[in-house]
Amino acid sequence: MCCDLKRRFLLLYATQKGQAKAIAEEIWQQAGAHGLEADMHCISEMDKYNLETEKDPVVIVISTTGTGDPPDTARKFVKKIQDRTLLPGHFAHLQYGLLGLGDSEYTFFCNGGKTVDRRLQELGAQHFYDTGLADDCVGLELVVDPWIDGLWLALKKAFLSQKEDSMSSDAVPSAHSAAPHVMHVLNLSSDVQNLKLEDEGVRSSGVLSQKSVDSNLVASTRDTEPSLVRSGPPVSQSALNIPALPPEYIEVQFQDTHGENPHLSSVISEGTTFEVPVTKAVQLTREDAIKTALLLELDIADTVFDYQPGDAFCVICPNNVSEVEELLQILGLSEKGECFVCVKVKQGTKKKGATCPQHIPERSTLKFILTWCLEIRAIPKKAFLRALVECTSDVGEKRRLQELCSRQGASDYTRFIRESNVCLLDLLRAFPSCKPSLNLLIEHLPKLQARSYSASSSNLYQPGKLCFVFNIVEFPACLARPVSRKGVCTGWLAELVAPLLHPSKNTLDAKGGNTSTEKISIFARPNNTFHLPADPSVPFMMVGPGTGISPFIGFLQHRQKLREEHTDWEFGETWLFFGCRHQDRDYLFKQLRCFLENGTLTHLKVCFSRDSAVAEVSPPKYVQDVVRLYAKEVARVLLKERGYFYICGDKKHMADGVSDAVVDILSMEMEVDKLEAMKTLAMLREAKRYLQDVWS
Fold first, then answer.
1. Structural domain of residue 58, as residue ranges?
2. What percent of the chain has pLDDT over 70?
3. Transmembrane residues, as ranges (predicted)?
């Protein structure tokens, strides 16, 4: 920037899992190269900034959590700006640019950012730069990178308009159109660090050049198919723009082996944790089913844990033991696993506002940190790859890691890392000369998240019990990751309850009962909307194929108990659409017939997508096809009787198909075009009568 003094802008981030913070830190780091100073704060630190009096431009990076909520760190901020006593011009003085992060697999894409953006506009704030919405489904960097590129020119214009004391109400062109112009006007090498390959002793004058890599290596791989460990043209022949090296900020000190690790509750900030025994485990699918579904029953009788049907809860799970051991071995720390470590901020670090990650205990063993605190299965971000470059000694491996974190290697990153679910351990296997330090792992690996599951029971029907259903997640081997593996939590749970599923003489008591008393730690994650209608006379429809049926078992158990206790109440009709692959292999709850027979369930419609049709006319394969068969009933329940419609399960391959079916039904029955039908569906969503609990 052409100015003598660094111009300041306020940089706020609201993060749930660390993504928004990492992007804000990237903006903060690049700002200096543009002659700017980013005053960076978490949006929750409202004592450190004041938007009511802020005169400089504001940049906000905000993620979305749950089904469309702002992250926990933004809740107080959102509550504050949503105060309806605020006047329309409350933020008329404010200029801002907002980058929202989300996942289009979910219905309310980037809703955290959209909520803040919309409210700031209502209160008179002005965009100095168009809002960016980044999609984690296809890769955040596809929007994030060009949005950051365009930010500097937008800030420059905002400062110029301040200087001239005339603020323009026109937003700067969007990132997609602004980015090329920025790259032309501003020398991109000013915000991209140009590295050297020390092994060759060659300095790059602008960007990394392929010439600095051993030519024999290039020749040997020229005709081979690109993979995780090798590239092909044009990437292999390109000069590379790679991110700046993130400054190290963590220092790890090893101590003795005496003491106790902290309780698991200390690594959870979301709420009260409960350690509860697993009292029952049932395999719901046959051995030859494509997926293995388990039902677990937990005993919550001795706790104050409370829930409603439709609520979710979280299971605190560890990383795989063998993966932790292998990671320790690769790091050369096998003998240090039981040593306690002290983690603190590195003196003299260049990282602004550096603090120790909250999910790392003050004192615990190395093995505890790798097992319970860090998500070692996380897909490495480009900043992590950039840091790993410095830990890699082999020239060819170094170049490939540089390619994977570069702009030119974006498609390779998506294909071989993101889409292949490659994790740190996979990278260390693929690049054996890469030997990262422990502090690097703590700096770049995110917090190990507890896994969320829908309750599949009713406390009214089964007092003191909490049930849930899940498929054991399988990740088959692929080109980029030659080792197959199970989901972190589902694989652990399956191993944990194996004695309950396959009891041996050692696990049975004298009466034949099971003596296994395995316990797991859980905490509540209530759902504010995915509940039964408050009025029992209101009809509702449920769509839940596969394990998506889980919360509806709780719904039906609850409804059955209410019918037994309140014989004078009026109850609306209930519909359930269920589907699975094979009737004899994975029809998870055949006892649904019992609900049908006792009148709790009015209509049960099932379909089996992989069973061979014997009738002349093939039956519908998927739940969305069955829903279409009952178009008049769906329209009647939703439009005339003001009923509810619930969907639970896979979003991409099911929930979107059901939504399309409902739109077509509304269009046909209301005799309106598709756009009007979509508006009606949007109104049903807004009224909380069309509800989804879906996952990608």
1. 7-161
2. 87
3. none
